[in-house]
Amino acid sequence: IKKFDTVGTLKNKKRSGRKPLLDQRQCRQILGVVAKNPSASPVKIALESKNTIGKQVSSSTIRRRLKEADFKTYVVRKTIEITPTNKTKRLRFALEYVKKPLDFWFNILWTDESAFQYQGSYSKHFMHLKNNQKHLAAQPTNRFGGGTVMFWGCLSYYGFGGLVPIEGTLNQNGY
C-alpha cells in the first residue's frame, strides 16, 4: 500500500542490471579479430580471448557482440577458380559470337563432360561478415577429387540431349 501511494503502481522499477563484461575497447578488439579472420568460429575466438583481450569470455558473448555490430553468419559458397588466361579466352569467344544471327545457332551442338565427386567433404563453412561484405563469403574448390563419376551431355537450339555416364576416361575415340 505504501509503495502504491508513493509510486502510483505495484510494478517493480526497472533495475540497472549487471554491468557489461566487456568494455567498448575490448568489443572493438574482438571485432578486429573477426575482421582479420571472418571464418573463425565464436568458440575459437572465445578460447583465444584470454590472449586477445586479457579476459576469458564465452562463445555466447562473442555471438552477442557480433550481432550488436551487425555481423551476420553466412554459409560460404563454393566457387571454381578461373585463371586470368581462361577469363581472357572466354571474353574473346563471347565477343566473337555475340552478333551472330539466330539461324547460325540452329547448327551448333554444345557438348561437355564433367566429373562429379560423390565422396568427400560436404560440410558447410561459415563466415561472420557485415551485410555489405556478403560477396566475400566464397570458398575456392577443386572440381575433381575423391571418388568421382563422369557424365557427358549436350544441348542445341532445339533443347537438351541425353546425359550419358562415362566409364573410364573420354578421349577422341569415345566421342
UniProtKB/TrEMBL annotation:
A biological process term (GO) from this entry: DNA transposition
Annotated ranges, domain Transposase Tc1-like: 27-99
GO CC entries: nucleus
Record SUPFAM superfamilies: Homeodomain-like
Molecular function per GO: DNA binding
Pfam families in the cross-refs: HTH_Tnp_Tc3_2
Matches recorded under InterPro entries: Homeodomain-like_sf, RNaseH_sf, Transposase_5, Transposase_Tc1-like
Subcellular location: Nucleus
Name of protein: Transposase
Taxonomic lineage of the native organism: Eukaryota, Metazoa, Ecdysozoa, Arthropoda, Hexapoda
